[in-house]
Structures are given as C-alpha cells and as structure tokens.
C-alpha cells in the first residue's frame, strides 16, 4: 500500500531528523526562488555547481508515480507523449517486485535488486522491532547509490521527492535536497505543482548534475480511484496536470539552454490496478486458524502483495512455509505464494518467508477486510508494466527510437552512471545502461 500506515512519532520523523542535521551543521538551509522554497545542502558543498566542474552534462530522472503506460496518449498527456515519441522508448518496460514505491525508487537509484539493497517493499515486518513498519529510514538502504557515486566524482546531485517516506529513505544523500512542503496531511505527499516549482528552482538556482524528482499526484489519485466514472475523471485530471508539470520542466531546460546537454529519463515506479469492495483477500484469519501457524505469522500488507513472516521456532520454518503457501494458494484472489528463498525472487530476508501476490482486480487487506479500504493498489504482477523513456537533447540520446528490450527500474542508475562515464559498483549492477 502507499498509505502512510506507520506514522513515526514526531521526534523521529524524517523532517525532524532533517531539521536536526541543519541544527548540528551537517546541512545548511537555503531559501531559493520567489516562492521562498527551502532546500538543505550538504555543509561545505558549493551552492551552485562550479562552472567546468567535471562536465556540462545534466541528467534528470522524472518519476510519474503510479502511471500506467496506456495512460500516456496524445489526448490526455500530449507533452509526455511527445517526449516519448521523440526519444528512446521502451514499450516492454517493467517495475520489479514487489511493485511498490519505495523499493522501486531504491532500485532506480542503486541499480541493484532488493537482496542487495535491503529494501524489498514499502511495508516489512521488522524482526528486531517486532512490528510492521514503513521502510523510510536512511539506513534501510544498505548499499551505495548513484547519487553517492556522482558526489564522490565531484559532481552535484539533488532530490525533489514529493512523498515523506521517499524523503526519509533517501535522507541527506544528495548535495541538495528539497524540504517538501506543504505536504497533504492525509496522503503524506506534496502536490505536483509544488514539487515541480521546487524542481525548477533547484535546476535554475543550484543546477545539480543529477536531479531525481518524484511526482506523486497520479499515484495518489489512483489510490482514491473507484472504478466509477466520476473518480476516473479525477485521475484523468491528475494525469493532465502532471503532464503540464512535466512540460514546465522541459520548457525550463529548453529556455535555459540546458536541453542540448541533457538526458531526461521519464518512468513510473509501478502502475495501478483497481479492485471492487468485495474482491479483498485477508490471510491473517486463515493462518491463525491453523494449529501449526496460529499466532506465529506476521503479515506486512503491501496492497497487491502480502509478505508472510514465520515467527515460530526455526526448526519448524520449512513446514510452516509449505503450510503458509498451501493456505494462501487455496484462497480466492491469490495468484501465487512463493517461498521467498527462491533464488529468482531476489528479495532478501527483509521480505519474510512467503511472498504472496494477488490476481488482477484484487487487493490484500490485513488483518481483516477493513484493514485496506483503498481500491487502487499495486505490488502484484498486474501492476508491472510501466512507461519508461529516455529523452533530452544530448547527442547520446537516440531520437525517435523504440526498443524491444525490457527496460526495468534497476536500469536507471546504470544509465545515469554510463551517461557520466562512471564505473560500476563492486559486484556490478543488476540493471543495465539503456543508452
Ligand atoms: Zn509509487
């Protein structure tokens, strides 16, 4: 789920930690732009990329959160459509499981699968804490990111992330970070117009070599979407607005002369699937009714995926895994229940013992049908297809080209690294450079 289900206490929130970093001198606050936008910057870093610092190349990654590839069209999103047609597009592109926001943003910026990053889902059962929590802590990412690699190469970076948990998990890695405000209290995200104001100001005044932007409106309207026509209209309105915001970004690159030096990667982190009120799966009751499993399974509900964690004796784990799989697969609406240790899943122990995906048109709701009232969800294979295209005026970007390759979210970091001529991390990337 994308709902901010585990709200941190105020004193440990990402915002409070950011404020503490400013207080202790690790970052400095910078007001920029007519709107008084607030950025924090690594203490001692140049406020603006020094002229000639490395390269004039610029890379921008624009995430249209939760956008389906079939929603990009000449009528509804003419600007995104024109960008896609003019550059290098990947119609077969895919999000990676678990098809949730945090793991896929982490995969974009690391180029690595969750068994290496430590971030397999939005919600996990934290065995040390003994509770389900959101993966929104900076230390949740165990590996380096392309942001850090650029910084170490003497280049500057910026993050403009509209969601509180993304702001939390990427923390203070970037040279420049937008302090997102105002955040909509219920959804925990900043509307796209504010996010784009911040992105434009960051590019205009701080000019980082890499800027990573998340636009959250389409996803948020997707979650609120019922299959009725009225709310579909709200999502179309959000799509049209996000399209206008993307064009503002392109307009700035063109009017400031940056376009010819730029690579612009546009993609979604996952798509969206809608379920009717009755098409809801709750496994907690059935698991607790089983003599072996009763009271010994914790569930992290990720909307389109349930992660099941055996909390009983280690000696009984194999039997418990088989039992959990059998019960889950006998439940209407379940697509598959995988033993998490299967090598191809590459999810790592943070994802628990059994990974359960729902069919299209269903959702998980734990511990009972009231747990997840949101009709729009992702995390399951039905939400795998994403828009993914590379645009920009830099000569390295192919023009009017369609590739049959399956680009994936893990390809973003290697693509950015390759564009800047940076090498690979130890162990190599799991994704591949797409230009
Ligand atoms: Zn998302």
Automatic annotation (TrEMBL):
Organism: Nocardioides koreensis
Gene3D superfamilies named among the record's database cross-references: Alkaline Phosphatase, subunit A
Protein name in UniProt: Alkaline phosphatase family protein
Entry-linked SUPFAM superfamilies: Alkaline phosphatase-like
InterPro entries reported for this sequence: Alkaline_phosphatase_core_sf, Phosphodiest/P_Trfase, TAT_signal
